[in-house]
Amino acid sequence: MLWRSLFFCLCLAQPVQACRTALVLAMDVSQSVDAGEYRLQIDGLAAALRDPEIAEILVRDQVALSVIQWSGVDAQEVSLDWTQMLSPSHVQLFAAAVQRLPRAFVMSNTAPAEALNRALLHFDSGPDCARRVIDMSGDGTPNAGGDIGRFRRTAERSGVTVNGLAIEGLGRAITNYYQRNVITADGFVETARGHRDYARAIRRKILREISTVFG
After folding, report:
1. Which side of the chain, N or C, has fewer Cβ within a 10 Å radius?
2. 127-149 pLDDT, tens per residue?
């Protein structure tokens, strides 16, 4: 699409500066997410990126962002490739691109193991940043795919932090699954009480991810 081509041409034209954090935003678009809930997710993510506090840190630390949509075993798509936030205009353009994203998959299973593996491999094509973080969000537990523990261990050995955003209906089943199986030892889980709470939760989560203080 023309708007996407113009967006990435602008990004490539800028000099690449030091990057503090490379952050993969991995969004669940499996069949448990209906059209309205998908819209709540991308609108909520775009709003979080436009938040003045978050936008300021993204530019200050030259954070690199990428968006992956995931679902079943063979259903992972890099919807927005690596882009460093070199200026406020980069943040605004990236947020606008998020808000325009077409849904990548419909009526597909939930395979977080394969999604985590795809996100890990995606760092191979990204900038050399001081930290590498995967933001895994989802509203269900697996009904397809392999053992996610294998890829969580790979992340830990590689120095990659995996955090989770659990979108709950009732109870804490998804939160508990992410805590026990998905996040790395240095990771955390943020809980959204339904998709309507996603915007609040993703803002809080991204702010925590990019505000990490080095010792």
Report:
1. C
2. 999 999 999 999 999 999 999 99
